[in-house]
Design goal:
Distance between the termini: 14 Å
Helix content: 25-40%
CATH superfamily: Ribonuclease Z/Hydroxyacylglutathione hydrolase-like
Shape: globular
Number of domains: 1
CATH class: Alpha Beta
Order of helices and strands: EEEHEHHEHEEHHEEEEEHEHHHEHEE
Largest sheet: 7 strands, mixed
CATH topology: Metallo-beta-lactamase, Chain A
CATH architecture: 4-Layer Sandwich
Strand content: 15-25%
Bound molecules: zinc ion
Strand order of the largest sheet: 8-5-4-3-2-1-16
Structural class: alpha/beta
Length: about 325
């Protein structure tokens, strides 16, 4: 299994997971970057969007789904998510309006205009042509002429290739077994994921206001754990955010603090074997990579955990790092 962070934080989240012979199964977890940026970061690690088997979506906030309108339009990639999240994404595709993580509504139509204004095309003529019959069908149904107001029309037929994944159900996607579980965030059906392939396991949890027993059970199993470490509580409370936003971030359906992340790792500590930990979704305003790392290490030392058994990285907002499961057996 190879895992690449393509971006992490409130400006956009996406991970590439590859498994099987020659990494033949390729999935994205979230597609929350601008489509052009996402395609460029995939290209930098040797992957074309057309090689992806699907996009697993954690929840419908724009920092997790921003590229989906373009990826669906030009590459017809299947979206894999909870049925309620799929419905929210379909509504976003129709209305062009998405909810950001801070609760504001953002329009993907404005971003489309920005993209088309750039001289160099993002997609080849071939893929644009391939997508045009579907576009024509949408125009005929009045969907593409819709204004940026939220749509009130009912969806008559699915706009995207979709696979429903219910929490607690295991499903194979090529060489990767995926199971999803509920997390706690102000979205319609937020999910964490556990991915297994070739004897190793990746657990991903971002955007959760609290850590539940179910989450701990999944964290416990991970060789690579990608865990939100959003903010330093003190910095958030004293920082510049309006109180309503601070209250939301601190709530049980907000985001995990450095301290909450550390407690989750301490509560699931095991001495046998090496584990990797990527601290994810760091706030630019209320955290720093150094603060997140130091906080985690301090908690682990306090719990008398042997730090030689864990490799911790704080994820940058840009792409990197890369994890390869062959490290497990070295
Ligand atoms: Zn987010
Ligand atoms: Zn969110």
């Amino acid at each position: 299994m190879r895992v690449v962070s393509l971006g992490s934080g409130s400006s956009g989240n996406a991970f590439l997971v590859e498994a099987g012979p020659q990494g033949r199964t390729k999935l994205l977890i979230d597609a929350g970057l601008r489509a052009r940026t996402l395609v460029a970061r995939l290209a930098a690690v040797g992957v074309l969007p057309s090689q992806l088997q699907g996009i697993l979506v954690t929840h419908e906030h724009s920092d997790h789904v921003q590229a989906i309108p373009q990826l669906v339009k030009h590459y017809a990639l299947p979206i894999i998510a909870d049925p309620q999240t799929l419905k929210a994404i379909e509504q976003g595709l129709i209305s062009g309006v998405w909810r950001s993580d801070s609760g504001k509504l953002v329009s993907s139509r404005t971003k489309d205009k920005e993209t088309t204004a750039v001289a160099q095309p993002l997609f080849t003529a071939e893929t644009l042509l391939a997508s045009s019959p579907a576009d024509l069908a949408l125009v005929a149904r009045g969907v593409l002429n819709a204004t940026s107001e939220p749509a009130t029309t009912t969806i008559q037929q699915p706009l995207l290739a979709r696979t429903s994944l219910l929490a607690g159900v295991k499903q194979m996607f090529g060489d990767i077994e995926v199971s999803s579980f509920a997390i706690s965030h102000d979205a319609v059906a937020p999910r964490g994921y556990l991915l297994q392939a070739g004897g190793c396991r990746l657990c991903l949890i971002t955007d959760s206001g609290e850590v539940t027993q179910t989450m701990l059970e999944h964290i416990q199993q991970a060789d690579l754990l990608i865990l939100e470490s959003n903010h330093d509580r003190e910095r958030l409370v004293r920082g510049p955010y309006p109180w309503s936003l601070k209250r939301r971030i601190l709530s049980p359906t907000g985001h995990l603090s450095n301290e909450q992340a550390a407690q989750a790792v301490v509560n699931t500590w095991r001495e046998n074997g090496m584990r990797w930990l990527w601290l994810a979704h760091l706030s630019r305003t209320n955290n720093t990579p150094t603060l997140a790392l130091e906080s985690m290490k301090e908690y682990l030392r306090g719990a008398h955990a042997n730090l030689a058994h864990i490799r911790i990285s704080a994820l940058p907002h840009t792409s990197g790092p890369v994890w390869d499961s062959t490290q497990l057996w070295q």
